[in-house]
Amino acid sequence: MKAITYRGYGGPDVLEYGDVPEPKLGPDSVLVRVAAASVNPVDWKIQAGYLDGVLDVVFPVIPGWDVAGVVEQVGVGVTEFAPGDEVMGYVREDMVRRGTFAEYVAAPVRTLARKPAALDFAQAAGLPLAGLTAYQALTRALEVKPGETVLVHAAAGGVGSLAVQIAVALGARVIGTASERNHDFLRGLGAEPVVYGDGLADRVRALAPEGVDAVLDLIGGEALQLSPALLAEGGRLASIADGSVLALGGRYVFVRPDTADLTALAELQDGDRVTVEVAATFPLEQTAEAHRLNAAGHTRGKIVVIP
């Protein structure tokens, strides 16, 4: 099969396109014919070696954790899926080795859910990691309740745009930070936008004089550091981007595969309460360009690779 691989740490130039053996199918996995895979910052961060102290990496690596596709074959222990089923998944295993930027991936069933009928494959590929990150942060780390006010930093990005929609679906009022060019986009998702940068705290206080009930930080740095002062009494803080949130009394969130959570997201999709913005698509052989665009950090929504 065709796949993207890299044989050592580095930038986009280490990515190679070519033939690799099809993956072996374990008893609790299904073979998925990949229709689309989306790019996440963690992909190029692993590739650059930034997570070498955290994750075991076995070279050569096929990168990618997000996938949407069709089940071709099931392992002997699998009862959840059958050939022909359309699925999506956050295919993270214990070692970084065989990812989703390929024509086929052997995915453990614990990483998969059925693809929402409301989404095409490109949109579905953009949902798992970003959607699970937002969902788990909002429902578990922050325990957002109806009627509360939530501040989302970097609200127009891949995780942020989903976090806005999920928070609105949970019954919350949402304030989202973003550049001014993305304000109409955020209003369309149900958020009240504010420009980030100097004076951000004052702009948020103008919208929520009593403070916000929860802050979801997706960018770290200065935005995170000013967040505790924006919380109402008893307010909660979580970050997916900056471990210093712990010193501020908040929670650090690292997403995990979870079929039940992914199914809950699928139900929101099929209920037209959440959608996925696809910023750009690339053919598999141009995955390096997709990584460069993602690393630049200025896209709205998800970047998707099509085998």
From TrEMBL:
<keyword id="KW-0560">Oxidoreductase</keyword>
<dbReference type="GO" id="GO:0016491">
    <property type="term" value="F:oxidoreductase activity"/>
</dbReference>
<dbReference type="InterPro" id="IPR013154">
    <property type="entry name" value="ADH-like_N"/>
</dbReference>
<dbReference type="InterPro" id="IPR020843">
    <property type="entry name" value="ER"/>
</dbReference>
<dbReference type="InterPro" id="IPR011032">
    <property type="entry name" value="GroES-like_sf"/>
</dbReference>
<dbReference type="InterPro" id="IPR052733">
    <property type="entry name" value="Chloroplast_QOR"/>
</dbReference>
<dbReference type="Pfam" id="PF08240">
    <property type="entry name" value="ADH_N"/>
</dbReference>
<protein>
    <submittedName>
        <fullName>NADP-dependent oxidoreductase</fullName>
        <ecNumber>1.-.-.-</ecNumber>
    </submittedName>
</protein>
<dbReference type="InterPro" id="IPR036291">
    <property type="entry name" value="NAD(P)-bd_dom_sf"/>
</dbReference>
<feature type="domain" description="Enoyl reductase (ER)">
    <location>
        <begin position="10"/>
        <end position="305"/>
    </location>
</feature>
<dbReference type="Pfam" id="PF13602">
    <property type="entry name" value="ADH_zinc_N_2"/>
</dbReference>
